[in-house]
């Protein structure tokens, strides 16, 4: 399904993963604020490691750059040593990534992703739900069934599509490998995910949800994704640690949206 012009404001997220010490993180946050505050036509979300969320919240306060967490626990509180809950995150972050493949590899199940989504939404966070197939699943022609399973498990029991939900289509084989998906393939997969949402929640709801592409996005390849009708920005890992690269990606997405 394609809407033209897009009714959706693109969104670019920077997933720093488990990188940067505090001083480096603060410096990067300040640089990004200088370069990206007020950038029109795109929502920019910075997702530092949990210990630096408070720094990000403070340093980005009053700017247009949003803060996101990389994960949440599925319970709001309790005896879960070392975990961080959605109500805690909601004091310092607006978004939260849920179901990233690096967490699924670490054993996160579809049922847990579903619970995390629920607790994030209940705490007022905007979830970025990541889905994507592995290389062997892609090669076996199972991409559609894998995406269908991940989307339906994550949204099990939902009767409406949460308006704040963002999806990220991230083929696992493209994450951190430099092997970015062909933009036409990424478009086809994002349209496929939108179609799954349309089946569950209706065409109108699905037409409003933002779907990012993620997987080895760089300043060089971002234009190819940003030009696609069903791709509404990017979730960026490695390149989000480089202020030049991340700024260029955000600007390219904003420029495409204003064409
Ligand atoms: C990610 O971490 O979600 C990601 C897409 O990483 P990279 O851009 O490094 O492939």
CATH class: Alpha Beta
Tally the structural domains: 1
β content, as a range? Answer: 5-15%
Largest sheet at a glance?
8 strands, parallel, barrel
Q: Care to count the β-strands?
A: 8
Which fold name is given in CATH as the topology?
TIM Barrel
Q: What is the averaged pLDDT score?
A: 96
Give your account of this protein's structure.
The chain is α/β, with parallel strands linked by helices and 259 residues long. It has one domain (11-240, 252-257): TIM Barrel (Alpha-Beta Barrel), CATH 3.20.20. It is built from 11 helices and 8 strands. It has helices at 22-36, 53-60, 86-89, 101-105, 110-122, 135-139, 143-154, 183-201, 203-208, 222-226, 243-257; strands spanning 11-15, 43-47, 66-69, 95-98, 126-131, 166-169, 210-214, 233-236. Helix 2 links the parallel strand 2 (43-47) and strand 3 (66-69). The longest helix has 19 residues, at 183-201. The relative contact order is 0.17. Phosphoenolpyruvate binds next to strand 8.
Structural descriptors:
alpha/beta; 41% helix; 259 residues
List the helices and strands and how they pair.
Blueprint: E1 11-15, H1 22-36, E2 43-47, H2 53-60, E3 66-69, H3 86-89, E4 95-98, H4 101-105, H5 110-122, E5 126-131, H6 135-139, H7 143-154, E6 166-169, H8 183-201, H9 203-208, E7 210-214, H10 222-226, E8 233-236, H11 243-257
The structure holds phosphoenolpyruvate.
């Amino acid at each position: 399904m394609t809407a033209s012009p897009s009714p959706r404001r693109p969104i670019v997220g920077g997933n720093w993963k488990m990188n940067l010490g505090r001083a480096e993180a603060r410096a990067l946050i300040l640089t990004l604020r200088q370069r990206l505050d007020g950038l029109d036509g795109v929502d920019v979300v910075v997702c530092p490691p949990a210990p630096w969320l408070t720094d990000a919240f403070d340093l980005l306060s009053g700017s247009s750059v949003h803060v996101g967490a990389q994960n949440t626990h599925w319970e709001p509180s309790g005896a879960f040593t070392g975990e961080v809950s959605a109500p805690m995150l909601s004091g310092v972050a607006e978004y939260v990534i849920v179901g990233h493949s690096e967490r699924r590899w670490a054993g996160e199940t579809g049922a847990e992703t579903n619970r995390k989504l629920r607790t994030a939404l209940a705490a007022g966070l905007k979830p970025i739900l990541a889905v994507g197939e592995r290389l062997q699943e892609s090669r076996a022609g199972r991409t559609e069934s894998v995406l269908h399973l991940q989307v339906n498990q994550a949204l099990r029991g939902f009767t409406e599509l949460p308006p704040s939900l963002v999806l990220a289509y991230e083929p696992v084989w493209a994450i951190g490998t430099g092997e970015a998906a062909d933009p036409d393939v990424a478009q086809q997969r994002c349209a496929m995910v939108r179609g799954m949402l349309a089946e569950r929640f209706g065409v109108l709801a699905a037409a409003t949800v933002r779907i990012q592409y993620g997987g080895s996005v760089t300043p060089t390849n971002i234009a190819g994704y940003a030009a696609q009708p069903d791709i509404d920005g990017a979730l960026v890992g490695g390149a989000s640690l480089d202020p030049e690269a991340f700024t260029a990606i955000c600007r390219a997405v904003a420029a495409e949206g204003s064409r």
